[in-house]
Amino acid sequence: MTGNVDDLVGRWTVTFMKWKWLYVFKATGEVTWKDPLNGMTGQGRWKVQGNFVHLSWFNSTTKESWTFPVKTKDSPGWVDATYGKGQLLATKVAESANPQFYKDPDAGMAGAGLTFTGDLWRQDIELGSSATVTLKNAEGCTVELDDHTIAKLVTWWYARDLLYVDIVPQKPGNAELIAKKGGSLATSIQVHVGSNISGAVYVDDWAGSYYSLSHRAVGGNYSKFITLEYKDSVTIDINIDDIADTPSKPNAGEGTLGDGGRRFPPRMDPLSTPRIYSAKQKAIQAMAVAYADFLEVARDGIFFILTINPLVAPVQPAQVRPTPKNKLPQRIQQHYDKPPPAPTRVPVRLTEPYVNLNPGATAAENGLGAWLDQEAQLGRMGLIKRVRGMPESGGPGVRNPDYHLFTSETPNAQLNNINTIEDLTGDAVIANSKNIDNIISNNVGSKSGSQAKVIFIEVGAGESATITDEAIRAWKLEHFSQQFPRLRRVVVIRNAGGARRAVLDLEVR
Fold first, then answer.
1. Of 219, 225, 312, 498, which is the most buried if we count CB atoms within 10 A?
2. How many angstroms separate the CA atoms of 405 and 128, rounded?
3. Cβ-contact 406, 465 below 8 angstroms
């Protein structure tokens, strides 16, 4: 009898001697197991050969085979392990077509409360961490917490019917994570946030700080609030009057829980919260310089970036929020309770020349590098602030990336020193063929595995000029995250006679 390997894909309850486990088979040949009683888990691979399905478990000497074709109930198999030998029986778990929360093992199983059949009923999270749950059969659904103060939800779609939900705690407590379809309850799970103060994110470990003139402003004065954003996508406001100018002592781990589930010291000052204090000083020092320009535009809606920390800044695509062009952030200059005298205007800053340390670079590589560096200096490349061309060889048997990428505004004097350490590496692909799928698959796979974390693909030369923007944008985030585990970011640029523009820009992880 001929079997269908698709019959294996899904969840199975497996009974062997005194143990009962939950298996999950994936179409990719991956398989996981979990003991619902003690939470222990494992991963492995499966493969059909003749009349058997052979399972191999990572870091284990256990030998396991099932008869094939499989049956949906009491399908037999055999286990040869250090803890016993004998027959197993496996029964497939019937899958519902209704919306249902579950845990994707690739997103982590920590804190998951599962029934014996693997159904998720509860998610435990500690302050300072986060958890991801997945809603399957999610088309047409929305998700929410019945108490939105407990945690923040960050969602993204993997496919039309798979919705991933990041739960980011903000304070201890309990809530229900609810999925609704057509306004009616479809399914729900419990969410519990633990009160581990020592594990909470310290208030000074923020990723970006921002200031808006009108944000929470009162009495005709400018705002007194700095907005802090953290790598887990939580944002809070800090009143600059709460940041003392005299130092106390460095943070020693003590503190209390405050806004956003952050851990606050007894006093914010230059020693306990040096980065917050620095953000305050930058705001105070810079507004005077820009005040003359403030008078020429509407106060409402002006939004300024104080600082972005490249080491902890958020990179998950689900946390990126687009900004309208007419409200793009500008670098903060200063805070005043009352308007200061109008100072001298600041001239427009010009970009520094591109530094290329590779005399063997092609004209296309050099042109692309110069364009990337200019875009980075103008603030159009996100965290990347400078780009430097690198020699092809870093020594015998060492292949350098095409570019070194820097997340700070590094001056040319440092870039010309080849020993200046980069933050990221980038490589260029100058495409000539007309098949964008082959261009991406072949080049991103090879380069992101060894040479670079960021790949820049330029189309426009030869037959690649016929590739449409729609074909490029057909590549979605999940395609890159699944196929290229070491890739951080991919950018596809169109070069039309020297005029370049980004067609696709995805931060993969």
1. 225
2. 30
3. no
**Cα–Cα distance for residue pair 157/134, rounded to 1 Å:** 10
Pair 278, 240: CB distance under 8 Å: no
Nearest-CA neighbor of 487 among 451, 439, 448, 461? 448
Strand 256-257 and strand 112-114: pairing? unpaired
Query: What is the number of residues in the chain?
Result: 509
Q: CB 420: neighbour CB atoms within 10 A?
A: 15
In tens, the pLDDT along 429-486 reads 888 888 888 887 777 766 555 556 788 889 988 888 888 888 888 877 666 666 666 6
270-283: b (≥16 Cβ within 10 Å) or e: bbbbebbbebbbbb
SS (H, E, C) 174-190: EEEEEEEECCEEEEEEE
Neighbours of 307 (CB within 10 A): 17
- The rounded distance, in Å, linking the Cα atoms of 291 and 271 is 30
| Cβ-based burial of 407 (10 A; exposed 0-12, middle 13-18, buried ≥19) | buried
Span of 10-14, 60-64, 105-109, 491-495 with lowest mean pLDDT:
105-109
Tokens representing 284 are 């105070």
CA 48 to chain centre: 36
Q: What is the DSSP string of 253-300?
A: S--EE-GGG-EE-SSBSTTTSHHHHHHHHHHHHHHHHHHHHHTTS-ST
